[in-house]
């Protein structure tokens, strides 16, 4: 049995898919026909032509309903597959118009692939389909001990311009290396968010789409609204128009973060300065909060009073990570001074760095660039705090004194 089955009369698409699969493990078996079988079991019949590239031990993970099939037939067949083999991911090749997305979702189609997609996009989508297969197998396995909830890591600061977006985007890149395609960054600076610019993305969909009733009801629709970043994670960027942001409620944001935590290992949340209502809704869903301060007394004081209010409201997430950004030993302040002003120890200190300023302007986070820079080392240290093995290393205390 092959890992991928493709049904299509199009030899051109067959070649396209095989090119995309070349970097993945597993083989493709193509049924070159525009007729779908009545019974999915027919897909499992031994191939009449011996294909050495089709080892018997592979498990079927993805069925691709390619171009040249009637859409109605394809959707009907997808429904049958969903009932017979619920763990197999079905990919439909079609243009994803909103009406079709809904129909496809109801038929159990996991992904919609545009025929014009390039091999890299096809590959990412197939990887996603395989991950879905793996997660369905895991959840149907009786002995699973997984909680199924990912970490929600919010990046906050009372003051603007201290480096929240820089930290959030680098964190997404770093975590994407630990768990590829299992990370989603969300820009909750709804009015002036610049995650898209910091990641050089030109998103088709934004938070506005991700909170629509269709997306909030079904993870498949929500996934159709995510933007893939080439470094191996997803993004939901802020609305293009600040006016659209006014129509998004804190309840919708809370629900969106819950949905994402169900789907991803890590959800990274970039926020607007201060604590607007949407930020508070995010805070309630965060397992971890990264608090960012610059090296200035007013900023540190603002952070102290913000933390005090949140403590009174019992809104502080379980885990706190204090980051001192743009650290500079020549501004007449020591880490100890800042710690006593903030009222909490600093966990990570990131130096002022030209490489960071440059990376923002290029839209390539420092950790994506793999440039050797002292700031990159510190950002890497921040990423490691969220590594699944971090707590099991005895030398790693949650809070420990940093040196500038
Ligand atoms: N460690 C650093 N060294 C030098 N420049 C930095 C550093 N961290 C961030 N910057 C620069 O500071 C500017 C503001 O950073 P960023 O956009 O991440 O802040 P922010 O807190 O998200 O701002 P806002 O509150 O407006 O959303 C950017 O141009 C970025 O390149
Ligand atoms: Mg920002």
List the helices and strands and how they pair.
Layout: E1 4-7, H1 11-21, E2 28-31, E3 62-65, H2 71-84, E4 89-93, H3 98-106, E5 111-113, H4 119-140, E6 151-156, H5 164-178, E7 183-188, H6 195-198, H7 207-210, H8 213-217, H9 219-224, E8 227-229, E9 233-236, H10 242-245, H11 250-263, E10 266-271, H12 277-285, E11 288-293, H13 297-312, E12 319-327, H14 335-342, E13 348-351, H15 354-362, H16 366-369, H17 374-384
Parallel strand pairs: 1-2, 1-3, 3-4, 4-5, 6-10, 6-11, 7-9, 7-10, 11-12, 12-13
Antiparallel strand pairs: 8-9
The structure holds adenosine-5'-triphosphate and magnesium ion (MG).
Care to describe what's here?
By secondary structure, this protein is an alpha/beta fold. It folds into two domains: 4-140, Response regulator (Rossmann fold, 3-Layer(aba) Sandwich); 151-392, Rossmann fold (3-Layer(aba) Sandwich), CATH 3.40.50.300. It has helices at residues 11-21, 71-84, 98-106, 119-140, 164-178, 195-198, 207-210, 213-217, 219-224, 242-245, 250-263, 277-285, 297-312, 335-342, 354-362, 366-369, 374-384, and strands spanning 4-7, 28-31, 62-65, 89-93, 111-113, 151-156, 183-188, 227-229, 233-236, 266-271, 288-293, 319-327, 348-351. The strands form two sheets. An eight-stranded mixed β-sheet has the order 8-9-7-10-6-11-12-13, with helices on both faces. Strands 2-1-3-4-5 form a five-stranded parallel β-sheet, with helices on both faces. Strand 11, helix 13 (297-312) and strand 12 form a beta-alpha-beta unit. The radius of gyration is 24 Å and the shape is elongated. It binds adenosine-5'-triphosphate and magnesium ion. Magnesium ion (MG) is lined by residues 164-165, 189, 194, 270. Magnesium ion binds at residues 164-165, 189, 194, 270.
């Amino acid at each position: 049995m092959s890992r991928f089955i493709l049904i299509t009369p199009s030899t051109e698409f067959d070649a396209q898919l095989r090119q995309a699969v070349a970097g993945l493990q597993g083989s493709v078996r193509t049924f070159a026909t525009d007729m779908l079988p009545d019974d999915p079991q027919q897909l499992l019949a031994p191939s009449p032509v011996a294909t050495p590239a089709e080892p018997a031990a592979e498990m079927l993970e993805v069925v691709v309903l390619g171009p040249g099939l009637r859409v109605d037939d394809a959707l009907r067949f997808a429904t049958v597959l969903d009932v017979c083999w619920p763990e197999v991911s079905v990919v439909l090749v079609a243009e994803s118009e909103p009406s079709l997305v809904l129909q496809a979702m109801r038929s159990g189609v996991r992904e919609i692939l545009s025929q014009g997609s390039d091999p890299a996009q096809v590959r990412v989508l197939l990887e996603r389909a395989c991950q879905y297969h793996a997660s369905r197998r895991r959840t149907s396995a009786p002995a699973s001990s997984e909680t199924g909830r990912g970490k929600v890591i919010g990046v906050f600061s009372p003051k603007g311009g201290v480096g929240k977006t820089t930290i959030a985007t680098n964190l997404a890149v770093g975590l994407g290396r630990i768990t590829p395609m299992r990370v989603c960054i969300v820009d909750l600076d709804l009015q002036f968010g610049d995650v898209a610019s910091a990641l050089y993305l030109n998103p088709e969909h934004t938070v506005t789409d991700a909170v629509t009733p269709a997306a909030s009801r079904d993870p498949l629709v929500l996934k159709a609204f995510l933007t893939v970043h080439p470094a191996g994670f997803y993004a939901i960027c802020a609305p293009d128009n600040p006016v659209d942001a006014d129509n998004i409620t804190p309840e919708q944001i809370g629900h969106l973060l819950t949905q994402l935590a169900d789907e991803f290992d890590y959800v990274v949340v970039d926020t607007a300065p201060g604590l607007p209502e949407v930020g508070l809704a995010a805070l309630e869903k965060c397992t971890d909060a990264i608090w960012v301060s610059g090296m200035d007394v007013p900023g540190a004081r603002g952070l102290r009073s913000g933390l005090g209010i949140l403590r009174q409201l019992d809104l502080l997430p379980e885990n706190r990570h204090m980051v001192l950004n743009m650290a500079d030993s020549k501004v007449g302040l020591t880490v100890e001074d800042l710690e006593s002003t903030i009222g909490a120890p600093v966990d990570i200190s990131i130096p002022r760095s030209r490489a960071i300023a440059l990376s923002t302007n290029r839209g390539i986070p420092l950790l994506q660039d793999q440039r050797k820079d002292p700031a990159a080392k510190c950002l890497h240290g921040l990423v490691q705090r969220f590594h699944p093995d971090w707590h099991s290393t005895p030398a790693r205390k949650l809070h420990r004194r940093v040196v500038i």
